Amino acid sequence: MLDTEVLIAGAGPTGLTLAIELARRSIDFRLIETATGPFAGSRGKGIQPRTLEIFDDLGVIRKMLNSGMPYPPLRVHLGPFSLRLSPMGGQRQATESTPYPNLWLVPQNHTEAILRERLAELGGKVELGTAFGSLSQDDGGVRVRLATGESLTTKYLIGCDGGHSAVRKAVGLSLNGKSLSEQVLLVGDVEIEELDHTVWHVWPLARGGPVALCPLPEQFLFQLTVPRASAEGIEKVLEKVSGWRAVRVRWSSTYRPASRMVDRYRIGRVFLAGDAAHVHPPTGGQGLNTGVQDAYNLGWKLAHVLRGGPEALLDTYQEERLPVAAAVLGLSSRLYKTRSLKRGDATNQLALHYRMSSLSSGAPMGRLHPGDRMPNVRLADGANLFDQMRGIYATEVVTQKGVRILVRPDGYVSSIGMQPTKEYAGEITRRVKCLADGLGESSQ
């Protein structure tokens, strides 16, 4: 007898996104978190354009935008001189096909708070102070013992519990890869008064290693990244490099930049997502975003299978997401090694696709291929396609020439020019007509 259909271990951005996806589909789940309180720091602060589109679909985009700000310009300090550079990723104008074209700076604690609030609106909650303990599984389900002593049986267990994932270790998987530096870095949120809050300060030639001071969407609060000195804290390093004093350190943590991932996303009825499956260096802002998109890919598939869909659909989670994680890890590792301050189209995750997936079929239409992210378009009635796609179902788009495009619940094209099928795309409840046939000309 099942106690819940899905157990999610870890209530960071990945676990919260997955819980929201299940909650809005009325799937029974529990979301447990080892920590006794919400995360307090700004750590994963860069929200990529594709993730902003996901947050739009989840119903939290206004709050995300209001809680953050555009990435600021860079001020690079070189001894007595300084250079002002354009923001990482640049600043682009929104277009019909890409309504959120730029990186958005939202401290991770704000992101998690907004997602928790959305989950509560849907009737879900986070069970704080509840750690995963151990598991055993068979064809009928997964038996889990929690650190509280409670035992339960679930249909599926999803490990979203970070780089030190207890779920990953329990199924015998390892993070394979390497450290990118022997140096331990320290990151913290610091309060500094009377400092220009409109630029991202960088000291690339500081003794001991580069130092960066990123403004956050709170007055006089910055995220500081420094090489960890054995006898020096954040305050001393900051004052020595910049001449400014930290009024208060609100949060700090250490890490060693690494590029690691698992070679499998699934062991039986146990799945991994987010940092439990792949650990990124901070360059490029890929870690949090890749985890959110893992959850966005897995959520609708779990729901479809639990409603009676084919179990084989869950195999496509690893098929689609593992190559993406490998490509993203390669990108962020290259950015770290080159110390590049520029971010191009490769980092915004709009071009990531599932063209080689077994769920993608049919012929390309111009630049739009099966497996691509579906761009926003104007419909025949004047509405936006993204507005019509918002929700939990697949969408069938028909061009003026009658070409069918089937869009999956996660916003990727399942097929072009073929008869729609419900087998892998979810229940089709919408059929909308495009205003024009130039769709394939603006797929990015």
What does this entry look like structurally?
- The protein is α/β, with parallel strands linked by helices and 444 residues long.
- The protein has three domains: 4-67 and 106-177 and 259-347, FAD/NAD(P)-binding domain (3-Layer(bba) Sandwich); 69-100 and 183-255, D-Amino Acid Oxidase, Chain A, domain 2, CATH 3.30.9; 361-442, no CATH class.
- The protein is 24% helix and 27% strand.
- It contains nine helices and 26 strands.
- It has helices at residues 13-23, 49-58, 61-67, 108-121, 166-170, 234-242, 287-306, 315-338, 385-389, and strands at residues 4-9, 29-33, 46-47, 69-70, 74-78, 81-85, 104-105, 127-128, 132-138, 141-146, 151-159, 176-179, 185-191, 200-203, 211-215, 221-227, 248-255, 258-261, 266-267, 270-272, 278-279, 361-362, 394-398, 404-407, 413-416, 428-433.
- The strands form five sheets. Strands 1, 2, 8, 9, 10, 11, 19 and 20 form an eight-stranded mixed beta sheet that branches. A seven-stranded mixed beta sheet has the order 6-5-14-15-16-13-17, covered by helices on one side.
- Strand 23 (394-398) and strand 24 (404-407) form a beta hairpin.
- The protein starts with a strand and ends in an 11-residue tail after the last strand.
